[in-house]
Amino acid sequence: MEYNFLGRSGLRVSNICLGTMTFGHQRFGGNKMNKEESHKILDRFASLGGNFIDTANMYSLGVSESILGEWLVRQKRDDFVIATKVRGSMKAGVNDVGLGRKHIMSSCLESLRRLQTDHIDLYQIHWWDDAVPPEEWLGTLRDLVSAGRVRHIGVSNLCGWQLQKVVDLCQYEKFPPVVSLQQQYNLLCRHPEFEEFQVCKNEGISVLPWSPLKGGMLTGKYRRGVRPDASAGRIGVVAQDESLAMQIAPAWSQYDEKDHYWRLMEAMEKVAKVQGKTISQVAIRWLLQKDVVSSVIIGATSKQQLEDNVAASSAWCLNKEQMDELDKLSDLDLQYPHAMVRLVNKDRVNLFNPYPYVKNTRTI
């Protein structure tokens, strides 16, 4: 794999990050990943050069962290960058949820115990908390950094104004800097480019895309007009009962009758054939060639799936024409004020300006 810096920090991470939400977890009729199966995935990921692993305390209510910890304790700890998250409810107590100081402090200690380590490399808030001022949770994270329990802090699933507020507080109130934003980003979800990623580019924050394949909708295994059955992964399960739909498992009807989706899939299939790759690898490679992205978070329930996804990490690139075509087919209609901002600035490109409102595609 290739290795990128995590934001403005000196920490380097593999450009593929292993997400562990499936460890100890059963959902949408899929197979539960037990400890033995999960450890095989971790072993193979490490042997392929992966050093970045992401989990969260609420994944399987702590089981994911525990499985990772039992593996990590047998490794050379400094070889790996371990990321976890806090915010979700783990217990029934009134203070056992959110970003209050009490909950973060206790959650961090519990995560360290489950992970069997004395520090967390990247501690991330899982979501914004309307009930708690950001100064409270930023101050708590500062104390955890000062105590050596946390090395770097990150955020996840924030709106643009929330991210900018946090960045400003870090700068002017002397909280530890935010080095990463973990956000849903894929060829079917590009809304973060309008606001959040503009903040990231301006402030030197890495993007860590989750759901790079949009729950399976970007794998190429579905056909128009053919409703997948329950055996066809999470999309198939949700297709039978769309009340289960969520961001990581969108409703089948959301895409089946949409011409733009099928045009995009046809283009991805064509690119995949030219490159000698799979459609999934094209989807991941498209993300890796975006200049705000440091590492793409993938999940895997088998070594074969892991190896297929990791094959997007290096040794090949989508050319400019292929990137441009995928950009165009997946582009969103610009709404006000973004449409006006782009229009009046189309001839106002200044490379010395740190935040030009331009496409973010790496030079090939």
Can you put this structure into words, describing what you see?
The chain has 364 residues and is of the alpha/beta class. The protein has one domain: Alpha-Beta Barrel (TIM Barrel). The chain contains 13 helices and ten strands. It has helices at residues 35-47, 63-72, 101-115, 134-146, 160-172, 196-203, 233-240, 253-256, 259-275, 279-288, 303-310, 320-330, 338-344; strands at 3-5, 12-14, 16-19, 52-54, 81-86, 120-125, 150-156, 178-184, 206-210, 296-298. Helix 3 (101-115) links the parallel strand 5 (81-86) and strand 6 (120-125). Helix 2 (63-72) packs across helix 3. The protein is globular and about 50 Å long. The two termini are 17 Å apart. Keywords: Oxidoreductase. One of its GO terms (molecular function) is oxidoreductase activity. This is NADP-dependent oxidoreductase domain-containing protein. Belongs to the aldo/keto reductase family. Aldo/keto reductase 2 subfamily. InterPro entries: AKR, AKR_Detox_Biosynth, NAD(P)_OxRdtase_dom_sf, NADP_OxRdtase_dom.
Please give the CATH architecture: Alpha-Beta Barrel
Largest sheet, in brief, is: 8 strands, parallel
**What sort of overall outline do the alpha carbons produce when their principal axes are compared?**
globular
Beta strands, count: 10
Number of helices: 13
Q: What is the radius of gyration?
A: 20 Å
Percent of residues in helices comes to 25-40%
The N- and C-terminal alpha carbons lie at a distance of 17 Å
Protein name: NADP-dependent oxidoreductase domain-containing protein
Organism: Magallana gigas
InterPro entries: AKR, AKR_Detox_Biosynth, NAD(P)_OxRdtase_dom_sf, NADP_OxRdtase_dom
Family: Belongs to the aldo/keto reductase family. Aldo/keto reductase 2 subfamily.
